[in-house]
Amino acid sequence: MKVLLQSLALVVMLVGCGRRFDDQVVVVEKTRTYHRPTCSQVVMARVIVETRDEAKRKGYLPCPYCQPDKDQAGKPNHAE
After folding, report:
1. pLDDT tens across 62-78, in order?
2. Mean pLDDT of 17-23
3. 75 belongs to a structural domain
C-alpha cells in the first residue's frame, strides 16, 4: 500500500504541476526500464525520478508500452 501511495504521489507531483518536465522519467530499477510518469507499468513498482539522459547513461531501456522517448505525436523528444 505504501508503494502505491508513493507512486501516486509521484505521478501527481510530476503531472499535476504547472511546469512541464519533458525530460523527467520514472525509473524502475528492478526491470532496468524508464517510463512516462503516467505509465501503467509503474503503478505498483518502487521507482525513482531521473532525467531521460541519466537513465540512458545508467543503461536503462525505454518502456515499449509508454515509449518515453517519443512525444505525444510519436516523434522523438530530442535527437538520439
Report:
1. 999 999 998 766 677 75
2. 55
3. no
Contact between residue 78 and residue 51 where contact means Cβ atoms under 8 Å apart = no
| pTM (2 d.p.) | 0.66
Asked, for residue 10, whether it belongs to a domain, the answer is: yes
User: In terms of residues, how long is the chain?
Assistant: 80
**What is the count of structural domains for the chain?**
1
Q: Which residue range forms the structural domain that includes residue 24?
A: 2-62
Q: Is 60 exposed, middle or buried (0-12, 13-18, 19+ CB in 10 A)?
A: buried
Pair 7, 43: CB distance under 8 Å: yes
Radius of gyration for the alpha carbons in the chain, expressed in angstroms and rounded:
12
